[in-house]
Amino acid sequence: MADLAFAANLTMLYTERPFLERFAAAAADGFAGAEFVSTEGQSPRAVAAAAQAAGLPVVLVNGPTGDWAAGERGIAALPGRDDDFAAELDRTAQVVGALDVPLVNILAGRLEESADVSAAESLLVERLLRAADRLEPLGARVTLEHVNVHDVTGYALPVPEDVERIRERAGRERVGLQLDVYHAAMQGLDPVAEIERRLPDIAHVQIADAPGRHEPGTGELDFPSVFAALRARGYTGWVSGEYVPRDGAGWLARARARR
Length: 259
Prior knowledge:
Keywords: Carbohydrate metabolism, Isomerase. Belongs to the hyi family. The protein is α/β, with parallel strands linked by helices and about 260 residues long. It has one domain: TIM Barrel. About 40% of the residues lie in helices and about 15% in strands. It has helices at about 20-30, 45-55, 80-100, 115-135, 160-170, 180-185, 190-200, 225-230, 250-255, and strands spanning about 5-10, 35, 60, 105, 140-145, 175-180, 200-205, 240. The chain has an eight-stranded parallel beta barrel with strand order 1-2-3-4-5-6-7-8, surrounded by five helices. The mean pLDDT is about 95.
């Protein structure tokens, strides 16, 4: 049985270091890949050089996110943001082209309480297809993620079932399911059951323990069972640590030892 491939989210991990130095730090801890929200002002060429020097491929980046520092978590479902979406998609395409990134996560965003949900979902489908049209020729597939509404109030797609509804409309072969173990647990779902139910549709997995959103082993989730479910069902994608680090990366060696 092949082992799982673990990546580090460099937007959340190793933040005590400059962005370009995080690749080497992740590699030293045993991660085999990297993902991030943005290049934090670094040029795609500089990021590509840092990733190559560390031997750490970039396996996923986020697409149009809006103003992350101000609390936006995507804009794909938000009305009135066509120009922003187009401009950020251009920048995302540059990163994908320079780093040969295979997956781009398109975040739906937070909806106002008064939002027309049906119109927002139609807009999301339209923009997902626009992103797919732009990125597929570069070798990247679009993914769509669920985000819990306790951490991100008003997020348009709180649970995997919401993502699946959009995938049905946009085309399941063009939009992959990005399953986040932490977000599923925070919505009261059983991550193992979600894995068993949704493979082989899962294109990418992200992990953090709950509660707390720290590394596996710091909360209440049964990660040996999570990893066993992925292995048993032949998952071949990446498992990315997207957590607030507290106790280091010792969990990674333990995860690999329990095969």
